[in-house]
Amino acid sequence: MLDAKAIQADFPILQVEAHPGVPLVYLDNAATSQKPRAVIEAMDTYYRSYNANVHRGIHRLSEAATAAYEGARVRVARFINAPDPDQVIFVRNTTEGINLVAFTWGRANLRPGDEILLTEMEHHSNIVPWQLLAEEKGAVVRYIPFTGEGLLDLSRLPELLTGRTRIFSFTAMSNVFGTINPVQELVAAAHAVGAVTVVDAAQAVPHLPVDVQALDCDFLAFSSHKMCGPTGIGVLYGKRHLLEAMPPFMGGGDMIRRVRLEGSTWNDLPWKFEAGTPSIAEGIGLGAAVDYLSAIGMEAVHAHEQFITDYALEALSEIEGLQTLGPPAAQKGGVAAFTLEGAHPHDIAQLLDQDGIAVRAGHHCAMPLHHKLNLPASARASFYLYTTTEDVDKLVAGLHRVRQVFRL
Ligand SMILES: Cc1ncc(COP(=O)(O)O)c(C=O)c1O
């Protein structure tokens, strides 16, 4: 078992008070995670002692910066078991990774009438890029519905995933239900009909062991800021033959091999997709985050979150009028979205904040999911490797106070 209390000591912000005299209980990890000292220091050291542009200067600082930035790519590749660091493209975040696939592979390969398959539990960043692409190409977007428990209704798969499906893009773990989807099975089903798979791993890579070769997915995207790393950098993994055949995403410096006034040729992978000066400090920070998580072990992170989620769902179920969204703990990651009869999620979040407890309220960038549930919004507590049972106890006490304030 992880010692979450000891892990909290690695995160300077978790020692800060939310309000004078009120300790912070940070339960908004699905939105973004906190950063350990090792990550903050890696970025600080870069700026203090070897800040320079990468891939360019033949001077000591630039060589050091390039080695650290490219070293981070090697670490990320190992972390997700990519066959080669060249298949790890640094982007800004999950959103940009998915857009990259839509606007390169999608634009080059989709024809009118082709189908893009998504699910009804997607984050907006895995819906809107495909809607834009479908509109441009005359393609059709279809959705796998979810069941009352918040699981994908796979009985609909044979009818929705067909020879017309060119792209099947789905979340590995829902940011509202917490549902962990059967990625390997879905990828195999897509390949059986010749569709390309895109896995939104924004909530998976930070919380579970992910092995892209075992999953056999074609593309997989995730964000550094949800996995102890900084904002401004994320990853798109892709299979080599697909990445090599794809046109570039953005044009500019670094992504070219040769530029003439008549036209240009492209750099090798991964730089073909990395136009302009990259997020260097952020890449180095992500490398440090990967080191931090690897030292703890993703199996241990996942087991801890399952334990905390189980504990939280049990405790929340005892609060009158409270309903959690999504499946039981065994089928989900560390997310507990809920509604409380008689209290609006925003009021819940505001009252909890007075107790120093940070949760999120709203549609969590999953409007279609909430729309289907006939809910304008929900409140969401989300956990990470530093969440303790005491944190959950404080959440439960805070929710009892919400009920008192609203005289429920
Ligand atoms: C499942 C899922 N997909 C995609 C995203 C988008 O991540 P980002 O905003 O870092 O691009 C999120 C972020 O909340 C998410 O939870």
CATH superfamily of the largest domain: Type I PLP-dependent aspartate aminotransferase-like (Major domain)
Question: Roughly how many Å is the radius of gyration?
Answer: 22 Å
**Could you report the average pLDDT, rounded to the nearest whole number?**
97
CATH topology name of the largest domain: Aspartate Aminotransferase, domain 2
* CATH architectural grouping of the largest domain: 3-Layer(aba) Sandwich
**Estimated helix fraction:** 25-40%
The outline comes out as globular
Q: In terms of per-residue confidence, which ranges show pLDDT below 50 for 5 or more consecutive residues?
A: none
Can you offer a commentary on this structure?
The chain has 408 residues and is α/β, with parallel strands linked by helices. It has two domains: 133 residues, Alpha-Beta Complex (Aspartate Aminotransferase, domain 1), CATH 3.90.1150.10; 243 residues, Aspartate Aminotransferase, domain 2. The chain is built from 14 helices and 17 strands. It has a seven-stranded mixed sheet, sandwiched between helices. A hairpin with a 2-residue loop joins strand 11 and strand 12. Helix 2 runs antiparallel to helix 10. The two termini are 37 Å apart. The mean pLDDT is 97. Pyridoxal-5'-phosphate binds next to helix 4.
